[in-house]
């Protein structure tokens, strides 16, 4: 699990015309691919109830582990059924909601914590910076998987607990990157000008600093979203994620694992879905970085 | 350099203390530890006796100080599950995890550095794209899934390597690959970025202009400079890996510290949990400390930080 | 096979498992535990694996013949009930422990005194607390004094009560025994890495007892937590025998035709316990009609047919049919969701209710039950946790409804289950004084018929009041490698000493 990326060098920010950016975006294959896959998954998540004729919770114990259509199954359950006879497609579609929600909420929590700390440290420097750097060091020294497992084991594995724990554990990268980015932006003339003009601190941070570090924020957001989704899956795999019968992809992999040697499609389908989701988020993040700061791409 | 070392060392100690306090506090939220120790068929009298015997009735701060004092002298208490000294259990299991971590990071470096260099030498070439693609794909494969698939293919289908255990070097091949490939994308990207930067630096251009052998430039000058942050990242990654080997160890039945941690969580064995969080943190702190020193030693400009 | 086909295909991967070779040449039998055993000292661990080691490394005074169910002399050659609370044993002569210490009456007296002393903190108190003390008559005669008449004594003496060497145990204590076990059993410990690895070797000097000597020279037991990894090792021939294989996997293994799969009934019974006494606060479950509705709502037979499979049977008794005094002619509630809804409406829950549901194993079974409950309007929030944690919460009375199982420590008597949970202890959710009284009467009489009568009264009322929903008995799947000969028994105990090569 990769964690500390190199801090992207922040070059002078030149406000590039939107058209230029759009043109770059349309030429960026990774961005297009990532965006398209992401869009599909998002649509599936939103319209899950409409797209599946079965409930993700409806069991049929006499129709367990029916294979998907492409392995000789029947069309009523085109992705087959799981070990309790629940429609696999319906669980996959509803599971997209759970995975996306976990990713979004966990990344939002860490973005709030991390970027606040990072921007404050970068703006004020000195003692504030020292304190934040210290916090980042402490956070990095804590083994994420271990702490997350321990907390989930202590407080039970509800969706809220999992999201909160991941959110509280994954803010370091936001802090590191935004701290560096803010330090660069702070040196710019118009920030100094705003200070001289007597703009209030929140205004400076909000209007002058934040928009200029936004592209970094978005890129890290996508990375951490992907990270949170993978971690949740790992927690579920170890039996300490969200509670069944919630249709989470991690849980589906964990349940499918039981029959790994005999019905490998049970674990392959949610595994591929998870892979595609994380891949698309990462490609989207990389693409956004390239497009918003083309000179930063090394 | 001495001042720098001392400063970093001081920071490391402070971080270590804070982490130890957090892990101590976190696990005491689990409820009454006396009940957990007493286990089945325990009456309230038994529980009171255990509370007194273990000193759970003392203020939390005193208990923490006591635990920390013990930890400094290598005494981390007794496991509630095994009824053996925690230090003994943990050191017993740590060997496997450290071996795995070292193998995995070596694997990652051996794979990532040549890929990164090749990609940087010819930006936007096929090699570059392939390397980038691999790194993006690598980050998206869930390790538990990857591990299981490797067992199916290489152990069951092809019969090349054992599926589980840690009896011989062969047992470490699959776990090394699974754990190692996770560090590969980051190291590769950093190598590539570093190489690109160095290659465009003035002194390399000068060297090229002077007509020095390209290979010599590449390895003697460019790589040497680009490698500094890579080594530092590798040290940090190694720290993460030790903490992240839980999943891998549980799949491959490696009886290392990660697996011990997972089992201890389910067994409610708090002393072992605390010790493991502490040990993993210390590893991370140690590695980052060493990385900082290494960086500073190789690049004097950094010593100011 | 293309990669995609390999990952997706349901074609059996075992086609490729063509290299099974047990280590018959080296004489080592390879087995796996799926959990780490905390200590090898049988009085200080509660794991099933510990019980298996107990039978291999130690001996009890008696032995229960798994085929006939009859008790035979083991370390004792003869025993007589002098009165309802005294048994006299003639001990076998010439038996030595693995360390050379001679087995005498002193060892029996020491073991009984040690384990019944509450200060020593033995973990499974129920296994030993029925004994008062032991008296040495001469070197090879000993009397066991019971606290009260206890009809199941023979079963306990043939099961969990292992006899320890007095001199060695006095010297090393539970911690020493945990890492270097010494017994009289057919196998002795050659290597032990706590929790990870056990190597047993045949005890060449084993006496001519009912267990018989081990035909296999060396048994190597590793801990492999993941079932898939175990099966993978089995395919590769690096494990020779699997047990507790889940029903689905066992079916597939059997279908391969290469391996012998034996399904044997287990003493374990699954049940839903409901907080009828209202210990966890005000809940709909204090209403008998709601509990009956739950009994009606769950299609136990379908769960059994689809998930549990094997030789399991639906039961209505709060004990296993193989256990003595476990009556089976009890009232029952057929699967009838409409009736369940009617009962709920009658109790004032026409729109159903939501309740916390706890479980610790067999998550699919729990989810299936939740599906059935959902169909009659009862919404459940699953709290799936480790056994120790659930047990602790249950004992504190904080669990409204839970799916539990009990294996009775393989003691073939109803008291090992019904009395465990219905005599007002911390895990008694019913707290019914009448039932408590009947069981106490039953367990203080030596009249077998009277005893069975009282148990039947208790079991009947448990169903009538629907304190529990007894679900089904469990079964165990044993999978034998190509050159292993072993006959699994129906008490969930794997007898390591009874293995042989084909």
From TrEMBL, chain A:
Location, primary (coarse class): membrane
Subcellular location: Cell membrane
TM region(s), chain numbering: 30-51, 98-124, 144-170, 218-240, 260-279
UniProt keyword list: Cell membrane, Membrane, Transmembrane, Transmembrane helix, Transport
Swiss-Prot/TrEMBL GO biological process terms: transmembrane transport
Any Gene Ontology CC annotation: plasma membrane
InterPro entries named in the record: BP-dependent_transpt_permease, MetI-like, MetI-like_sf, OppC_N
Pfam families: BPD_transp_1, OppC_N
Membrane disposition: Multi-pass membrane protein
PROSITE patterns membership: ABC_TM1 (PS50928)
UniProt domain ABC transmembrane type-1: residue ranges: 96-285
Family stated for the protein in its record: Belongs to the binding-protein-dependent transport system permease family.
Protein name: Peptide/nickel transport system permease protein
Naturally occurring in which organism (per UniProt): Salipiger marinus
UniProtKB/TrEMBL annotation, chain B:
GO cellular component: plasma membrane
GO MF annotation, one: dipeptide transmembrane transporter activity
Keyword Transport assigned: yes
Domain ABC transmembrane type-1: 94-291
UniProt keyword Methyltransferase present: no
UniProt xrefs under SUPFAM superfamilies: MetI-like
Database matches in InterPro entries: BPD_transp_1_N, MetI-like, MetI-like_sf
Subcellular location per the Swiss-Prot or TrEMBL entry: Cell membrane
Domain of life: Bacteria
Membrane topology: Multi-pass membrane protein
Keywords: Cell membrane, Membrane, Transmembrane, Transmembrane helix, Transport
Pfam family, one: BPD_transp_1_N
Annotated TM spans: 9-30, 94-119, 131-156, 168-188, 226-252, 272-294
PANTHER family in the record: DIPEPTIDE TRANSPORT SYSTEM PERMEASE PROTEIN DPPB-RELATED
Family assignment from sequence similarity: Belongs to the binding-protein-dependent transport system permease family.
Annotated protein name in UniProt: Peptide/nickel transport system permease protein
Source organism of the structure: Salipiger marinus
TrEMBL record, chain C:
Any one GO BP annotation for this protein: peptide transport
Highest taxon of source: Bacteria
Keyword set, alphabetical order: Signal, Transport
Signal peptide: 1-22
GO molecular function: peptide transmembrane transporter activity
Domain Solute-binding protein family: residue ranges: 71-426
Major subcellular location class: periplasm
Pfam families xrefs: SBP_bac_5
InterPro entries: Peptide/Ni-bd, SBP_5, SBP_5_dom
Gene3D superfamilies, sorted: Dipeptide-binding Protein, Domain 1 (3.90.76.10), Dipeptide-binding Protein, Domain 3 (3.10.105.10), Periplasmic binding protein-like II (3.40.190.10)
Keyword Transport appears in the UniProt entry: yes
GO cellular component terms, A-Z: ATP-binding cassette (ABC) transporter complex; outer membrane-bounded periplasmic space
Cell compartment(s), UniProt: Periplasm
Similarity annotation: Belongs to the bacterial solute-binding protein 5 family.
Name of the protein in question: Peptide/nickel transport system substrate-binding protein
Taxonomic lineage from the root: Bacteria, Pseudomonadati, Pseudomonadota, Alphaproteobacteria, Rhodobacterales
């Amino acid at each position: 699990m990769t964690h500390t990326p190199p801090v992207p060098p922040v070059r002078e920010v030149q406000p590039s015309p939107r058209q230029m950016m759009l043109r770059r975006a349309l030429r960026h294959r990774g961005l297009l691919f990532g965006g398209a896959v992401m869009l599909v998954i998002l649509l599936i998540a939103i319209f899950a109830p409409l797209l599946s004729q079965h409930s993700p919770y409806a069991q049929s114990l006499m129709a367990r582990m029916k294979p998907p259509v492409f392995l000789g199954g029947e069309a009523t359950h085109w992705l087959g059924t799981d070990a309790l006879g629940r429609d696999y497609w319906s669980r996959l579609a509803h599971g997209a909601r759970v995975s996306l929600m976990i990713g979004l909420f966990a990344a939002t929590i860490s973005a709030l914590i991390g970027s606040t700390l990072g921007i404050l440290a970068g703006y004020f420097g000195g003692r504030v910076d020292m304190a934040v750097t210290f916090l980042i060091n402490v956070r990095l020294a804590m083994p994420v998987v271990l702490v997350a497992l321990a907390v989930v084991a202590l407080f039970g594995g509800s969706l809220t607990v999992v999201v909160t724990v991941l959110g509280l554990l994954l803010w370091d990268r936001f802090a590191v990157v935004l701290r560096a980015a803010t330090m660069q932006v702070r040196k710019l003339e118009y920030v100094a000008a705003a200070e001289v003009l007597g703009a209030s601190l929140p205004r400076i941070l909000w209007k002058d600093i934040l928009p200029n570090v936004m592209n970094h924020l978005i890129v890290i957001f996508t990375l951490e979203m992907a990270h949170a989704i993978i971690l949740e899956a790992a927690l579920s795999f170890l039996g300490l994620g969200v509670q069944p019968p919630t249709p989470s992809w991690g849980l589906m992999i964990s349940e499918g694992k039981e029959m790994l040697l005999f019905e490998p499609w049970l674990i392959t389908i949610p595994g591929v879905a998870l892979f595609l989701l994380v891949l698309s988020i990462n490609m989207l993040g990389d693409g956004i970085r390239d497009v918003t700061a083309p000179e930063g791409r090394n | 350099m001495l001042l720098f070392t001392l400063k970093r060392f001081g920071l490391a100690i402070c971080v270590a203390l804070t982490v130890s306090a957090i892990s101590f506090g976190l696990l005491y939220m689990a409820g009454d530890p006396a009940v957990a120790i007493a286990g089945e068929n325990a009456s309230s009298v038994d529980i009171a006796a255990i509370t007194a015997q273990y000193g759970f009735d003392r203020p939390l701060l005193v208990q923490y100080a006591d635990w920390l004092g013990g930890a400094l002298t290598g005494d981390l208490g007794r496991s509630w599950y095994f009824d053996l000294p925690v230090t003994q259990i943990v050191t017993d299991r740590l060997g496997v995890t450290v071996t795995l971590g070292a193998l995995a990071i070596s694997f990652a470096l051996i794979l990532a550095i040549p890929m990164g260099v090749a990609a940087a030498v010819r930006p936007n070439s096929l090699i570059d794209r392939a390397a980038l693609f691999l790194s993006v794909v690598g980050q998206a494969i869930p390790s538990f899934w990857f591990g299981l698939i490797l067992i199916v293919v290489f152990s069951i289908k092809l019969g090349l390597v054992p599926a589980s255990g840690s009896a011989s070097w062969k047992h470490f091949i699959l776990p090394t690959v699974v754990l190692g490939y996770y560090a590969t994308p980051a190291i590769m990207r950093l190598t590539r970025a570093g190489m690109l930067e160095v290659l465009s630096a003035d002194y390399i251009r000068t060297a090229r202009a002077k007509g020095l052998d390209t290979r010599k430039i590449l390895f003697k000058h460019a790589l040497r400079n680009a490698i500094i942050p890579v080594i530092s990242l590798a040290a940090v990654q190694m720290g993460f890996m030790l903490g992240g080997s839980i999943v891998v160890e549980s799949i491959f039945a490696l009886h290392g510290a990660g697996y011990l941690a997972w089992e201890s969580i389910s067994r409610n064995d708090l002393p072992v949990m605390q010790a493991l969080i502490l040990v993993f943190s210390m590893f991370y702190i140690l590695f980052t400390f060493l990385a900082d020193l290494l960086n500073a030693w190789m690049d004097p400009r950094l010593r100011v930080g | 096979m293309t990669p995609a086909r390999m990952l997706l295909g349901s074609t059996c991967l075992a086609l490729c498992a063509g290299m099974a070779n047990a280590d018959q040449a080296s004489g080592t039998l390879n087995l796996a535990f799926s959990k780490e055993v905390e200590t090898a000292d049988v009085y200080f661990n509660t794991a099933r694996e510990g019980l298996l080691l107990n039978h291999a490394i130690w001996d009890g005074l008696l032995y229960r013949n798994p085929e006939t169910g009859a008790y035979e002399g083991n370390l004792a050659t003869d025993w007589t009930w002098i009165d309802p609370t005294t048994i006299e044993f003639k001990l076998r002569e010439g038996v030595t422990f693995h360390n050379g210490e001679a087995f005498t009456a002193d060892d029996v007296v020491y073991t009984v005194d040690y384990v019944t002393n509450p200060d020593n903190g033995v973990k499974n108190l129920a296994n030993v607390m029925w004994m008062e003390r032991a008296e040495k008559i001469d070197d090879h005669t000993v009397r066991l004094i019971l606290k009260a008449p206890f009809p199941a004594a023979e079963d306990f003496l043939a099961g969990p009560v292992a006899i320890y060497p007095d001199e060695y145990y006095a010297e090393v204590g539970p911690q020493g025994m945990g890492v270097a076990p010494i017994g009289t059993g057919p196998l002795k410990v050659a290597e032990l890495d706590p929790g990870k690895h056990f190597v047993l070797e045949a005890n060449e000097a084993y006496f001519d007892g009912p267990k018989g000597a081990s035909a296999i020279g060396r048994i190597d037991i590793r801990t492999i937590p993941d079932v898939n990894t175990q099966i993978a090792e089995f395919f590769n021939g690096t494990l020779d025998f699997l047990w507790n294989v889940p029903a689905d996997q066992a079916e597939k293994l059997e279908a391969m035709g290469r391996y012998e799969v034996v399904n044997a009934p287990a003493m374990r019974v699954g049940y839903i316990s409901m907080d009828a006494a209202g210990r966890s606060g005000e809940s709909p479950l204090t209403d008998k009609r709601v509990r009956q509705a739950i009994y009606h709502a769950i299609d136990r037979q379908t769960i059994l047919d689809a998930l549990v499979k094997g030789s399991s049977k639906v039961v209505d008794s709060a004990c296993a049919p193989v256990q003595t005094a476990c009556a089976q002619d009890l009232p029952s509630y057929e699967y009838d969701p409409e009736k369940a809804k009617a009962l709920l409406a009658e109790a004032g829950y026409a729109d159903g209710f939501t309740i916390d549901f706890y479980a610790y194993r067999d998550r699919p079974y729990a989810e299936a039950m939740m599906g059935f409950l959902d169909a009659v309007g009862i919404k459940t929030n699953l709290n799936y946790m480790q056994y120790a944690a659930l047990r602790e919460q249950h004992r504190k009375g904080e669990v409204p409804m839970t799916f539990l199982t009990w294996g009775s420590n393989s003691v073939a008597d109803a008291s090992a289950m019904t009395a465990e949970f219905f005599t007002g202890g911390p895990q008694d959710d019913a707290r019914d004084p009448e039932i408590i009284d009947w069981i106490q009467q039953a367990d203080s009489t030596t009249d077998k018929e009277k005893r069975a009568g009282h148990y039947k009264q208790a079991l009947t009322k448990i169903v009538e009041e629907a304190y529990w929903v007894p679900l089904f008995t469990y079964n165990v799947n044993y999978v034998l490698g190509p050159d292993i000969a072993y006959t699994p028994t129906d008490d969930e105990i794997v007898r390591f000493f009874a293995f042989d090569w084909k």
